[in-house]
Design a protein that fits this description.
By secondary structure, this protein is an alpha+beta fold. It contains 2 helices and 5 strands. A 5-stranded antiparallel sheet has the order 1-2-3-5-4, covered by helices on one side. The structure holds guanosine-5'-monophosphate and zinc ion.
């Protein structure tokens, strides 16, 4: 079974992508929990932070800074970053992702 977020990154299933570069895609969450709710994913398939290795530390750091850029570019002075880690942590999609949530600026 293909990974949903890999399929989104490959444009095999539609999504509302607001940013993309060589390593990351940022798209709107299909069931937003805030007026602004996007997901930042690496194009590399990493299941969760549990599976992430020390080698991924630069990628993880850049993922946080991309979330910051996206939120600041939208004019938000504050926002929430959330990462659910593993089934017991509430993670439903097995491709690492960072939620960016904010209210209207
Ligand atoms: P998790 O609980 O894994 O941290 O969050 C997964 C998030 O992905 C949920 O907020 C859910 O609404 C979102 N999501 C799941 N499937 C899709 C999809 O096919 N497209 C988009 N845009 N979001 C999805
Ligand atoms: Zn994937």
């Amino acid at each position: 079974m293909a990974c949903t977020f890999c399929s989104i990154a490959a444009k095999e299933i539609p999504s509302d992508i607001i940013y993309e570069d060589e390593r990351f895609v940022v798209f709107k969450d299909i069931h937003p929990k805030a007026p602004f709710h996007v997901l930042v994913i690496p194009k590399e398939h990493i299941v969760s932070l549990i599976e992430a290795k020390q080698d991924h530390s630069a990628l993880m750091g850049d993922m946080v800074f991309l979330a910051k850029k996206v939120a600041e570019d939208k004019g938000f002075n504050g926002y929430k970053l959330l990462m659910n880690v593993g089934k017991e942590g509430g993670q439903e999609v097995d491709h690492i992702h960072l939620h960016v949530l904010a209210s209207k600026a």
